[in-house]
Protein: DEAD/DEAH box helicase
Amino acid sequence: MSRLAPATVLGRLASGPSRASRITHTEHLPPREGRHAVWPDRIRPEVIAAVQAAGIEHPWAHQARAAEHALDGDSVVVATGTASGKSLAYLVPVFSTLLDGSEAPNGRGATALYLAPTKALAADQCRSVKELSQSLGNAVRPAVYDGDTPFEEREWVRQYANYVLTNPDMLHRGILPSHPRWSSFLKSLKYVVIDECHTYRGVFGSHVAQVLRRLRRLCARYGASPVFLLASATAAEPSVAARRLTGLPVVEVADDASPRGELVFALWEPPLTEMQGEKGAPVRRTATAETADLLTDLTVQGVRSVAFVRSRRGAELISVIAQERLAEIDRSLARRVAAYRGGYLPEERRALEQALHSGELLGLAATTALELGIDVSGLDAVVIAGYPGTRASLWQQAGRAGRAGQGALAILVARDDPLDTFLVHHPEALFDQPVESTVLDPDNPYVLAPHLCAAAAELPLTDEDFELFGPACEDLLPQLEAAKLLRRRTKAWHWTRRERAADLTDIRGEGGRPVQIVESGTGRLLGTVDAGAAHTTVHEGAVHLHQGRTYLVRSFDLEDSVALVEEANPSYSTVARDTTSITVLETDTEIPWGDGRLCYGSVEVTNQVVSFLRRRLITGEVLGETKLDLPPRTLRTRAVWWTVTEDQLDEARINPEILGGALHAAEHASIGMLPLFATCDRWDIGGVSVPLHPDTLLPTVFVYDGHPGGAGFAERAFHTARAWLTATRQAIASCECEAGCPSCIQSPKCGNGNDPLHKRGAVRLLTVLLRGAPEGKAGEEPVAGTPERKAETQPGPAAPTAPAPQAPPAP
Structure:
């Protein structure tokens, strides 16, 4: 295993021809000394002995403080850095309480529930818990309870396990609806651990907030009032976010007392190629190809690495390219690189996790399925293929390396995209800002309504539940009664239908059952894809990658949710294209911006996938376009939009010939920049621009949440509009291209083929619009932002290029 200094590893990566010029900035986060404390005297000595046997003589100060709060009955959030020992901070008080409960006569004793956002993290934590509790005999009985748990084991978990590890999905669909079978567990529930709590944001976070309120309601029914222990390595205002998530007051422990090794963080921009894109725009080498090269080089050096990729297809492609290049050097090395992503079968995931733990694998190309908390100590480097959407995710992924306290290397490889290009030339936007505030809205009626139905099915709803579920509850119940989902009898609302109320909603916001991917010749199930992404990823003719093998989709059955594929070896990848229209339903807020207006409200979006492009592998060259016949989908959501008047167009020298292109370019770039101001991924949002919109009767640009009922992102955009649109203008203006490129205003998924676009017109239009932005109103709120740093900076080449387009997500 390599233990080279991170600066040495980076130097070797940059030593090839033209490589050094690709590093635009290097950030050095120096090592930090740790501060010890002592465990609270109420912790059982057997637990302290078990921790010491694991090699931990004394806790860090934040661990001891968190344990003290937990024992006092205070819900607490531990918001300290990656690998700072957050797990131990909650495990020690939990173990001590379970040990106390094991001695209770005639009873099951105390229980605890652990929630992780992914199955992989829950399985990993279960391994750690078992190792730590071995010396405690039968006092701690951990067990995973999720969709992969065999049915013959589930009854044992319900009856005997006292530390149950699961995920919010299983809590929502499996545990809460069956609460009578879990009554003894819930009656004794002392602690609820919520790991990686910063991931519960947007629509998913809003759903989880309501699932936790349902859990609290059932616990109260059985006489329990559990303490909530939350953990996150990357959270802004952690106590505020934790309170919004749980509905309870939460104490914050954020002073990280753990030691940290040196982190060298490089920003890497792939070079321009000789290729020309749409409208003759310059094209950079893809982040996928560049990341595959880096993963190959790191593997050759013996550097244990993970490359994080945004898409499942990207993870597969990077592993295939790296394997092919390694095989040319040493065939044995090719077997030490693999892909890891969601959609794999359970046994495939477990085998990969074990190979990574053991060191059998040197390199892994992974989606965010591996981002969260899994203990892969021993990693030396992380390569991030494209900005992951938020600073919180960026630091989470970078923190996967160096987990044993040694130095680590992190590299962010920019995609040919506005936001990525902006960031690698504006490192202060990454390193001088705190992480984003968590955005979630539990009162979203699209979220709250199905959970009220689920709660009524668990126990009839009464007026006393209004305080728990929020003020919107009282108005929604009569609507649910009118829709014949609930029925009021005396003083309570009851679920009266035969189907399960918990099946009314998918808490991941994925909208419908997953599409099964089946090999046509054998009938073998290869995996699944989320319903919301199916139109763009498994349409007829799509290229699908699985475990390093390439398949072509031969048919896509919408009714049965099945895509039939057969193995193939095409020389191209596929990218779907769609069209979007938008209707204003209601304007909630409207603010004058000079003669123009900034608005926020409800809209209906109609989206249809109409074709797909075939792009040459590595270069991204477009080989052709094929039409598709898929049905349109509608989405009612929330949006921010701005309008301009004829006078403003005259002032900006925008004539009718370039108006559409100027609006379109501003829309693309503003979507690309919004993730700097809201806790969103750019795929969570979409946009539409219209020279004359029928509802506003003015030139209008819309940016909307890509989830039913909204997710809080458009609202955040409204409140940060001045800073957001100022950054958008700066990003377009600073790009060195002549007429627009993927680094500023072009979008690879634009339904109109990036036509029309007018770069200079967009800059002039945004300049005039911002001139009218009011002081101290919407748009004045500063950007939220990353961890404080003490760093030596090494500026890279100047010449920032700008933020880029982003096509609306398929609703």
Q: What stands out?
A: The longest strand covers residues 572-593.
